[in-house]
Design brief:
The chain is α/β, with parallel strands linked by helices. It is built from 14 helices and nine strands. Helix 11 crosses helix 14. The chain binds adenosine-5'-triphosphate and magnesium ion.
Length: 375
């Protein structure tokens, strides 16, 4: 009985909970060459979902490129990530060693390097010029736009963790270059990100180059009922069972975060005998908290005291109205300090407003951990 749950990147063949409407909608957007900004809290399933959309598109002959900006630290690195994504996409479609070489006539700023091994191949890119970083970036984006415009191919680009561009000093210039080249290009672009306030500011601030370039789409939490069905199906198919009320608890406790649903279910599957019990679930959730504690500790270590205090107060009580006398009393902070800390925590996506307008800690397990021992 192998464990059907995973917190690793999902393969496009793996079982997938819900998201049928989103798959259809985003596939249509891609066919219509739309530019879309897709946001949600961390680990909701943005990347998994969009890679599935690309998988569907590839079957229809699209060139599907994926670039991830989460670790880029230089302008050159951004250009490299974009071109590596494009070359990998072309190579998947038709080996660059064979027919694909014709594309290389238009894509000249970087050259692809394909290393073939017994287990497959690895594709990297290296700049083929001595241009300075910004010129290299401009040239790269121009080539990308020219490639899409001049070839009879349909393309879908994902730029993941797009807001990380703002960490670079040159962000305004990069945003300007990207906008002027991408706008009107007959290809779809999906800009994904989890630091919502930073990402949305890029697209919705009148003074920023990306203003009104893309449709704003928020990825919703996984619906409780779908999580219950998914968990029960996965348990059954793998030879164990989970009663509905326990599956529902997982859905409620993970608050639609796909990652926690998978993580708790994975631990629970290991712990359960043939049928999962409430006791197993408690142990499974404890195990998840224990494994995540180092990450949580890293988050709070970086927080100034007032922000930590606000985060803890929010985690400890349900009300979430930061301006109420009760909240202010409980936090032992001045109202103006609360407002300041609130802005900073929002910017880091550590807190959010729920549907009723109350604030809460975004990550349900971080909230739980913060209410534990005195931290
Ligand atoms: N629809 C789904 N069904 C089952 N598991 C899912 C689903 N979507 C995502 N997951 C699981 O949740 C985890 C997080 O997914 P993913 O990395 O796609 O989220 P993300 O929103 O891109 O996260 P981040 O903001 O950290 O980039 C993955 O481990 C994946 O296995
Ligand atoms: Mg992601």
């Amino acid at each position: 009985m192998s464990n059907p749950f995973t917190i690793e990147r999902l393969s496009t063949q793996a079982a997938f909970c819900d998201r049928q409407d989103e798959l259809t909608t985003f596939e249509r957007y891609a066919e219509d060459n739309l530019k879309v900004v897709l946001f949600s809290p961390r680990r909701f399933g943005k990347t998994s979902l969009l890679l599935r959309v690309q998988d569907r598109l590839m079957k229809k002959g699209f060139v599907c490129a994926y670039a991830d900006f989460s670790t880029v630290t230089t302008v050159r690195g951004v250009a490299e990530e974009i071109m590596q994504g494009l070359f990998s996409a072309l190579h998947r479609k038709e080996s660059l060693l064979e027919k694909g070489t014709r594309y290389l006539r238009v894509l000249t700023t970087f050259k692809p390097i394909v290393k073939i091994s017994e287990t497959g191949y690895k594709l990297t890119v290296a700049p083929d010029t001595n241009l300075d970083d910004i010129t290299l970036f401009r040239q790269t984006v121009k080539e990308l736009a020219a490639f899409v415009t001049n070839h009879d191919v349909r393309c879908c680009f994902i730029m993941d963790e797009f807001q990380e561009l703002t960490r670079l000093r040159e962000t305004a210039e990069l945003e300007g270059i990207l906008r002027s080249n991408i706008q009107g290009v007959p290809a779809s672009f999906f800009f994904l990100g989890s630091r919502r306030s930073v990402l949305l500011a890029m697209f919705n601030d009148k003074k920023r180059p990306f203003f009104k370039l893309a449709r704003n789409e928020e990825l919703a939490p996984l619906p409780e009922d779908d999580v219950v069905v998914f968990l029960q199906e996965q348990f059954t198919q793998a030879g164990k069972t989970i009663p509905e009320d326990i599956a529902r608890r997982i859905a409620m406790h993970s608050r639609g975060h796909a990652y926690y649903m998978q993580y708790v279910a994975q631990e629970l599957f290991y712990m359960a005998d043939t049928e999962a019990t409430l006791k197993d679930l408690e142990r499974a959730e404890e195990a998840v908290l224990a494994k995540e504690q180092y990450g949580f500790a890293g988050i709070i270590q970086g927080l100034p005291l007032q922000q930590l205090r606000l985060l803890k107060t929010l985690a400890q009580q349900k009300e979430g109205k930061l301006t109420s006398a009760r909240f202010i009393g409980r936090s032992e902070m001045a109202a103006s300090t609360i407002v300041d800390a609130q802005h900073k925590l929002l910017e880091q996506d550590l807190i959010e407003k729920d549907a009723s307008g109350a604030y809460r800690v975004v990550d349900p397990f971080l909230a739980r951990w913060l209410t534990g021992v005195d931290r």
